[in-house]
Structures are given as structure tokens and as C-alpha cells.
Amino acid sequence: MFSLNNSTPQVEDYTPAFFSDFTILKNKFFIIMIYNNILVFNIETGKKIKNFEIIFENTYRILDMDIKKWDCKENDEFILIVNNNVILFKLIEENSSKII
């Protein structure tokens, strides 16, 4: 579904690729975090349909981040855990190909 070219550059501040845990919502959407980007894929087609970049003040990359499924009736929420802070996200599907 997704390829990441993470060849080692010749610099001292190289950071290896960071993949979070993943979650699946509505048996249709695969959600994973790579570095500070939340990527949403359609499982049926394998295509990336949304990319959210998480930006933190005064920080280039925070590696202590993870996503987990949130237990809700509609199966459309997940949480982002950042340095022991929890942020709840809700996946809103406007139509079969567009989410917000």
C-alpha cells in the first residue's frame, strides 16, 4: 500500500523511520502514523486517501507518538497519544471517497 524510501544520509542527525501502531476503522480505513504524519488508506483499494501532518511548536519531530483505536459504537474514532497527552480524532466520511 505504501513505500517509504529511508536510505541513510551522510549526516549526523539522521533519525530512522518511525512507524506507530495502526488501527482499522469501519472495516474500511487503515490508519498509521509515520513520523508526524497520520496516513489514512482505503483497505478496499489500497490507496492513500488522506494525509494529516501533526505540527508541534518548537519541535521538528516527536518520536513519542502512537495511535490507538477508541472504543465507540460507530467505530469511527481513534486516539493520538503524544508525550502522555491524548487527542481524540473522529473520522467523518462525507462520501465513499472523501473523508475529513
Describe the structure.
The structure is a single chain. By secondary structure, the chain is an all-beta fold. The protein has a single domain (19-99), classed as Beta Barrel (Thrombin, subunit H), CATH 2.40.10. Helices cover 0% and strands 47% of the residues. The chain contains no helices and nine strands. A four-stranded antiparallel beta sheet has the order 1-2-3-4, with no helix packed on it. It has a three-stranded antiparallel beta sheet with strand order 5-6-7, with no helix packed on it. A two-stranded antiparallel sheet has the order 8-9. It is globular. The model has no long low-confidence stretch (mean pLDDT 78).
- Overall 3D form: globular
Give the class from helix and strand content and strand pairing: mainly beta
- CATH class, named Mainly Beta
Describe the main β-sheet briefly: 4 strands, antiparallel
In short:
This protein has no helices and 9 strands. With 100 residues, it is an all-beta fold.
Secondary structure elements and pairings:
Elements: E1 19-25, E2 29-34, E3 37-42, E4 48-53, E5 65-69, E6 77-82, E7 85-90, E8 93-95, E9 98-99
Antiparallel strand pairs: 1-2, 2-3, 3-4, 5-6, 6-7, 8-9
Fill in the keyword field for this structure.
single chain; 100 residues; mainly beta; Thrombin, subunit H; four-stranded antiparallel sheet; three-stranded antiparallel sheet; 47% strand; globular
